[in-house]
Amino acid sequence: xxxxxxxxxxxxxxxxxxxxxxxxxxxxxxxxxxxxxxxxxxxxxxxxxxxxxxxxxxxxxxxxxxxxxxxxxxxxxxxxxxxxxxxxxxxxxxxxxxxxxxxxxxxxxxxxxxxxxxxxxxxxxxxxxxxxxxxxxxxxxxxxxxxxxxxxxxxxxxxxxxxxxxxxxxxxxxxxxxxxxxxxxxxxxxxxxxxxxxxxxxxxxxxxxxxxxxxxxxxxxxxxxxxxxxxxxxxxxxxxxxxxxxxxxxxxxxxxxxxxxxxxxxxxxxxxxxxxxxxxxxxxxxxxxxxxxxxxxxxxxxxxxxxxxxxxxxxxxxxxxxxxxxxxxxxxxxxxxxxxxxxxxxxxxxxxxxxxxxxxxxxxxxxxxxxxxxxxxxxxxxxxxxxxxxxxxxxxxxxxxxxxxxxxxxxxxxxxxxxxxxxxxxxxxxxxxxxxxxxxxxxxxxxxxxxxxxxxxxxxxxxxxxxxxxxxxxxxxxxxxxxxxxxxxxxxxxxxxxxxxxxxxxxxxxxxxxxxxxxxxxxxxxxxxxxxxxxxxxxxxxxxxxxxxxxxxxxxxxxxxxxxxxxxxxxxxxxxxxxxxxxxxxxxxxxxxxxxxxxxxxxxxxxxxxxxxxxxxxxxxxxxxxxxxxxxxxxxxxxxxxxxxxxxxxxxxxxxxxxxxxxxxxxxxxxxxxxxxxxxxxxxxxxxxxxxxxxxxxxxxxxxxxxxxxxxxxxxxxxxxxxxxxxxxxxxxxxxxxxxxxxxxxxxxxxxxxxxxxxxxxxxxxxxxxxxxxxxxxxxxxxxxxxxxxxxxxxxxxxxxxxxxxxxxxxxxxxxxxxxxxxxxxxxxxxxxxxxxxxxxxxxxxxxxxxxxxxxxxxxxxxxxxxxxxxxxxxxxxxxxxxxxxxxxxxxxxxxxxxxxx
Length: 902
What we know:
The chain is α+β, with helices and mostly antiparallel strands. Among the domains are: 1-55 and 247-272 and 279-425, no CATH class; 86-243, no CATH class; 575-746, no CATH class. A hairpin with an 8-residue loop joins strand 7 (158-161) and strand 8. Helix 2 runs parallel beside helix 10 (338-372), helix 2 packs antiparallel against helix 25 and helix 18 runs parallel beside helix 27. The longest helix has 41 residues, at 279-319.
């Protein structure tokens, strides 16, 4: 029977290719999706740790300890560098001193001072501090721009530093002036109670490590031992560590185990005397959760395609069942026993499964290699790739069993005459009899209702937690996809039945009359074809809509974070006035607006963050949806600021804290450089929920001209730029142009929407949904075309005798071809209509599930007209190609051969 099975596969190439195609599609879709997830997850380690500036910090627990048992920073460095995986160790120290601790020859700094200590090579290892003027050497100190401005000193002049516990002040020469505005890592709290919190200090002096260790710390020890210590906060002394990142596994789930082990190894070099702040593990832990959620999300989005591939295989098997039954009847008549036929069926099934799985695996690898690059799979974990391949092969075996083996084995144990009666009177499919469509829709509605009641669609600060709780809701779109398609086909059958019983005749002419009667008599096979192609169209259109909406929301979130397309922040050491906006008006820039901000606006006794904008120009560069405001439209809010300079917008949090209502007066003390705070009375014109450019939140938005007049400063803290071409590449190029146009003497930080998205690369909103959508859409299009082709060729195979009879009765070849085209066109048109409607509903449900991922909540779907038009064109093109190919088959039909088969 093995030789018969081989000959059977070779003798019926069309049937064999159909079987191979169904299995290969299922395996390829599972493999491509799983491999895509593995490759994407493999890149999340590098993406998640890329923003980490300082890998780990080995902090001395008692920096003021002295004596023989005290651990010096040199000894700690020597021990730490012996730990495998540690590349470098740079000492860093800091202590906060009281106002008046730093003086120049002409002024005293009347604000708190942060004394930092690191050597000049620290600036090369960590790109945190930008030296604006001068240079930092081992025999000089570095001052922040604010401290230098307050003291009126320039490089080359001297300052004196008073330290508690030391009678004589320390005199030092100023080597350079530096910008610390982007050195957040240096201002992160090391205290266990507030670890991770960032509290920037504007006034900073940087000393060499030797001065800190040999002069500052001994003085602080004396102060700590005195009866009345002056120092209020403890100093810290640490090693900032670089680790060998190449040792980390590409999967964050595995990499975090390595970093946590490295942390424990470092702590063991001096038990009880050193604590390690592990910044890498913190990022990898977040990425690990994102990776797991991403895999579940990707697989849920790809699962409908797998089900569709399995259905196509079963559909193809059903259409080819008649020919197989006829062959089995002939074999039985010639003496074949059921066990012989079971063996042949087994051999055939195994061959189809093996070859189809091999083709599918190869196709899956090829698709991922084309989409992500040839080296993408090399970075993925071998274990995960093996699991993915096994899952794909399992899907192929399941598909083969459902499509070929199970129905074939069931048919083998029926008598030939029973099989002929089955063919003569086709029963209604089980989904129609059991009302499976209504059951699926009810299940989808139940899942959706439970999620709504549980608050699963509400965004929270715990992004991953919200999405993980809502993931089972992804069952709702899938169940709705199946149920809605089946329900639409049920309604289509009902409408066709009523139409056939009426007097109206929608088809005119001889061929049209045959088509009408054919549709009436064979409504169930047509319905099966509409289900197959409609599911494929619904799957493809839902993915196109979802991906387009997802990308649009990612861009909207990036614009919200940046404030516009580009954000230009001048260096604190080289402040710029609002007129600097004119220098940013280069080709490609549509509009520019200046923004001033301060975190020192005092309301009552609290310091609040205030942002001052020019209402007219700000509205031209920033996206201001009405959802950003409460009780007022965006247009009216901006108009209020423009018409009344004393008007302000307040945040919902501030309105709640201070019980401020719209129209109330708000008294604020604005900081003034070099002078006392300025008391100003504003009045609240509106309340905002979010404000573009400030994702961490602000409290007050005011009028820029009013703010500048009150404070006497024309300084702008940042500039927002809107571009004529918002595409990522164009914005990136323009950002580089703006940085160059500012000039070497005006260092600026340029942030774009592209950098905002990259900075968010370890979060769920940075998933490569476009890549997944393209992958799934490719298979959706292929399955749509294959569904139409299977219908057309199955039609020709099942009805060969009928076509020959019609030819004998005088029907021309062109009329027969028109009959085939008509049935295929009916399938295609109804599939496109049903699939399009179901796909839109499915996409809406997916977008609703993913709402917690975005700051700017989606209000609808972004329609990719080009992609939907391409899908429609390819489906109709598949009809055209299939019918063209069918013409040759119709011409070759031989009546004598058909009579011999009977």
